[in-house]
């Protein structure tokens, strides 16, 4: 099969489009509980280029040669013994690993069927970002009806998913963005929009029950001080540098895990236009290096890789 392969840490050009062995030898069936999927598409996420560059090697060390990628959208080719939830020919999506490739072996328990009417290519944008946003709220903040949560980075794909999840939970949601994003933030469905890089606007933000952080750095440190005693600061980027100064706030780092039930629900929400994950461009897998270079600059929607 073809795959985008990384042989050493470094810049986007280190991703090479190559022939690699199939995950299963021809004629062999998947092991018990496993499913072989022919990918239609995957997508680029920040963790991908952090793993590629070596920035994330403390948490996610790479064993070379490596195939990166977390998002999977494709068609089931074969199933292992006892697998009854999916069958050959089914269209599926999942949060997985090693998806910059034409084929992938996936745990059956990580897969969910594509909702009827959803585009299989566009669905590749969803797994990691929507599940991260959902878990940032449900696992991290554990926000309750009537409470107030500020989502930092609300116009990003993870932030949009967090805003939607918090609204479904019955919370009052503040979308925290840059001043240049105020107009765009009006469409994410929050109750209030605030510019995090506007000191005057930040001073007006009262005590919060929780913060769902996707931006980190000094902004996270400022927001931590806004959380009431007994409140929660949940982040995909780890504790703020000043966490020790706020011992009454629970710090909740989030490491996204597969959850096919939640993923299916989020996909249905998107199909119903309750939530939007913008897609900037679609490139063939052989242009994975170009896709990384574009995504790493930031400020754009999802970049898909067509396999």
Write the layout of secondary structure elements.
Elements: E1 2-6, E2 15-19, E3 34-44, H1 46-53, E4 66-67, E5 71-79, E6 91-95, E7 103-107, E8 111-113, H2 127-141, E9 148-152, H3 157-168, E10 172-177, H4 182-185, E11 192-195, H5 199-203, E12 208-213, H6 217-224, E13 227-235, E14 250-253, H7 260-271, E15 279-284, H8 288-297, E16 302-306
Parallel strand pairs: 9-10, 9-12, 10-11, 12-13, 13-14, 15-16
Antiparallel strand pairs: 1-2, 1-4, 3-5, 3-7, 3-16, 5-6, 6-8
Helix pairs in contact: 2-3
Relevant terms:
307 residues, alpha/beta, Quinone Oxidoreductase, Chain A, domain 1, Rossmann fold, 2 domains, seven-stranded mixed sheet, 8 helices, 29% strand
Write up what this structure looks like.
This protein folds into two domains: 155 residues, Medium-chain alcohol dehydrogenases, catalytic domain (Quinone Oxidoreductase, Chain A, domain 1), CATH 3.90.180; 125 residues, 3-Layer(aba) Sandwich (Rossmann fold), CATH 3.40.50.720. Helix content is 24%, strand content 29%. It contains eight helices and 16 strands. Helix 2 crosses helix 3. It is globular. 46% of the residues are buried.
